[in-house]
User: What shape does this take?
Amino acid sequence: MYVGRFVVVGPDVGAYRVSSRSFPNRQAVDRDGTITVAPTEDAPETDNPYISYNCVQVTDRGVVIGNGSHVDPIAEKLALGVPARDALADPLQALDFEKDDYDTPRIAGIVGIDDEDPTAGEAGAAIGIVRRDALLVEAVTEPTLVATYERDQPVAFDLEATTAAGAARDVYDHSFEHAVCAAGVAGSPGEFETAIVNE
Assistant: This one.
């Protein structure tokens, strides 16, 4: 099954995977804790604005994971103290779904939300998606997946990894088709680790 790009978030572990039929020549690049999806050296040139973006941003209140340019404003809001659900919902709503041929949804999640966030409750994680017909943002207490296609609303996901490297490897190796690269995160505020898989 092809689900496109997907995010998995839980209270202390999460991951992101690029799956693509159209633009497979991409890689995850670690830039001092921020993970960027970028074209490989042999990738054909393109003016597609959705090819390169930060997919993981670490803040002192949680780690933001997502499939596009909305990751940065979500991380900025979270770092400024905006409640997690609002930090997710506001940029998703403002930027809306991607204006490509498929109306690709924007997906995002936050792992390791600090205990002082009243919107997190006991969750410690939140996940969201904006698609043509809906904006969904939920606090979650177990690993939960949302994808750009087929799985375009939050659903429980069997992620057993407890480390960033394990989470990245688990989602990269998952049976969903056309894996390109993956990133994983794990930990709690002040102690997050990140990892990437490129093959």
Summary: The chain has one domain: 6-41+49-198. DSSP finds three helices and 13 strands in the chain. The chain has a mean pLDDT of 93. The CA atoms of residues 72 and 103 lie 21 Å apart.
